[in-house]
Amino acid sequence: MSRFLPLFPLNIVVFPGEKLNLHIFEPRYRQLITECQANDTTFGIPVYLESGVAEYGTEIKILSIEKKYAGGEMDIKTKGMGIFQIKHFHKQMPGRLYAGGEVEEVPLDLKDAPVQRQQIELLLKKLYHALGIQSLMLTLAPDFKSFDIAHHLGMTTEQEYQVLICPTEEERFDMILKHLTNIVPIVLETELLKERVKLNGHFKQLLPPNF
């Protein structure tokens, strides 16, 4: 069943459960946030790609308005809820400055995929170690979901969008696993290259081959 949702297109992907802080400065979106806050309603962030406003996005709940500025700007805290599909997009709603659309909720499949998670965890350890950001592993829950790590994989916005629209958790994990399988060897080789470059010009103590 479709319903109306005010829309705030952005060139980012917001995943369900994600906390997002936004600085609102454009008049049209100041109006959107003010009305949603007053009516205790949600709005949507459809992903804006090179081709324009994408078909899918994430419903957003306003948690709080942290600060209001003299010029009307504001800082807000929000949280991603469910995923929606746009059925009819309106660039500007009648009598409003902002966009909106008729949307349908997309069922959210979070069925566990422990085999892929274990493989992903091993690759993440290698990746984060090579990049010197091992501390990220400490924030990862043992039963992490695809949405928990999707922003920490070096994916492009288009790739993150593909993760968002995958219908099942197993498919999302498969996509992430394929991405990590491709990039981890490249990152590791780059780190080895750095070490070889650093050694260039230094005195080397090498063990001659025994022949």
UniProtKB/TrEMBL annotation:
<protein>
    <submittedName>
        <fullName>Peptidase</fullName>
    </submittedName>
</protein>
<dbReference type="InterPro" id="IPR003111">
    <property type="entry name" value="Lon_prtase_N"/>
</dbReference>
<dbReference type="InterPro" id="IPR015947">
    <property type="entry name" value="PUA-like_sf"/>
</dbReference>
<dbReference type="Pfam" id="PF02190">
    <property type="entry name" value="LON_substr_bdg"/>
</dbReference>
<dbReference type="InterPro" id="IPR046336">
    <property type="entry name" value="Lon_prtase_N_sf"/>
</dbReference>
<feature type="domain" description="Lon N-terminal">
    <location>
        <begin position="4"/>
        <end position="182"/>
    </location>
</feature>
